[in-house]
Design a protein that fits this description.
This protein is an alpha/beta fold and 342 residues long. The protein folds into two domains: 10-203, HUPs (Rossmann fold, 3-Layer(aba) Sandwich); 220-341, TPP-binding domain (Rossmann fold), CATH 3.40.50.1220. The chain contains nine helices and 17 strands. The longest helix is centred in the N-terminal third of the chain and has 17 residues, at 23-39. It is globular. 42% of the residues are buried.
Length: 342
């Protein structure tokens, strides 16, 4: 644990793979910029890898004031132990007050290890981050400008706000798509802080023999129209109606976790707290009850249409338009009307 540094920077771990940044750190730079400005501190990006320096310009263009660059051939492939050592040494030296990670496979592996080594707190899978004051209920002590780490809790039944006023840095992982991608600004030039951290064989307990990557079958974040089905669709056969409507609208099919668990569609299509967060121009929810876990991943859609046979389904509370009826009757009529208008 490092001492509380009220003037410490806001950091984003800039996850990259084979010289390519994912969208997650760029999304985090968007909210990181807001947090840093509220605290009147610098926004830093931590870039680790082998020959990663070409990515500095990209991080600059998306808002980083500083890029902490650590390059070593032994850091070319992510391993938990080596990356943990790098992050911990950087944190001990520069003492940021906030460190953010994407809630990716890498971020979920790395962040807890860093938190454990630094004896600091960590909130996982945040859906929002804010800066605000916090008053201890017993002592009435007021802590100024703490990171409010907001996430669903107890199975999504409540929204919890978590603060860490004494065991810093304040750290959180944030799900992909929760924060909007900022606009690129090619005129910004970040300060590059090159750090040399010696990596030894003891820091690389695993030998990587081969790597296999399987691309996602659909990019839901880029889809302007999504037609998603839930458990209420009833069967894999009925789910074909969801596919048909999505195809007619030139959109992508999606699903709730319940539909994925029932085997109606693959997990790549899952929307929600444990799936992908989306903001399409049009989101059609078919047979989806509207639990908090799902709504958290689609409630920012520009227009939401709900189709459900239950008039009391919670999904109607977040929908702009609602249709109460059997999907096997409603969807064919919608498809017919869309084709006729086309």
């Amino acid at each position: 644990m490092i001492e509380v540094n009220r003037n410490g920077e806001v950091w984003v771990f800039a996850e990259q793979q084979d010289g390519q940044l994912s969208e997650v750190p760029l999304e985090l730079l968007s909210r990181g910029r807001e947090l840093a400005d509220k605290l009147s501190v610098k926004l830093g990006a931590v870039l680790v890898g082998d020959n990663a320096s070409p990515l500095v310009e990209e991080l600059s263009a998306y808002g980083a004031d500083k890029v902490y660059l650590v390059e070593d051939p032994l850091l070319g492939v992510f391993q938990t132990s080596s990356y943990t050592r790098v992050l911990c040494e950087l944190i001990e030296k520069h003492k940021p007050q906030i460190v953010l990670y994407g809630a990716t496979a890498v971020g979920r592996d790395l962040a807890p290890r860093v938190a454990s080594a630094m004896k600091a707190g960590l909130t996982a899978d945040c859906t929002d981050l804010q800066i605000d004051d916090f008053t201890e209920s017993r002592s009435k002590v007021v802590h100024k400008n703490l990171l409010q780490q907001i996430r669903p809790a107890f199975g999504g039944n409540i929204i919890a706000t978590i603060v860490n006023y004494d065991r810093w840095p304040q750290m959180a992982t944030v799900r992909e798509g929760v924060m909007p991608l900022p606009e690129r600004n090619g005129t910004i030039r970040a300060e590059v802080v090159s750090e040399s951290i010696k990596i030894t064989p003891e820091d690389l307990p695993l030998e990587i023999l081969s790597r296999h990557f399987e691309a996602k079958k659909v990019n839901l974040k880029a889809s302007r129209v999504i037609v998603a089905g839930g458990a209420g669709v009833g069967s894999k056969e009925n789910f074909k109606q969801v596919w048909k409507l999505a195809n007619v609208l030139g959109g992508a099919p999606g699903a709730s976790r319940a539909a994925v668990d029932l085997g109606f569609i693959e997990s790549d299509y899952q929307v929600g707290q444990t799936g992908t967060t989306v903001r399409p121009a049009l989101y059609i929810a078919v047979g989806i009850s509207g639990a908090v876990q799902h709504s958290a991943g689609m409630s920012d859609s520009a227009k939401i249409v709900a189709i459900n046979s239950d008039p009391d389904a919670p999904i109607f509370q977040v929908a702009h338009y609602g249709i109460v009826g059997d999907l096997n009757v409603v969807i064919p009529k919608l498809i017919k009307a869309i084709r006729a208008k086309s």
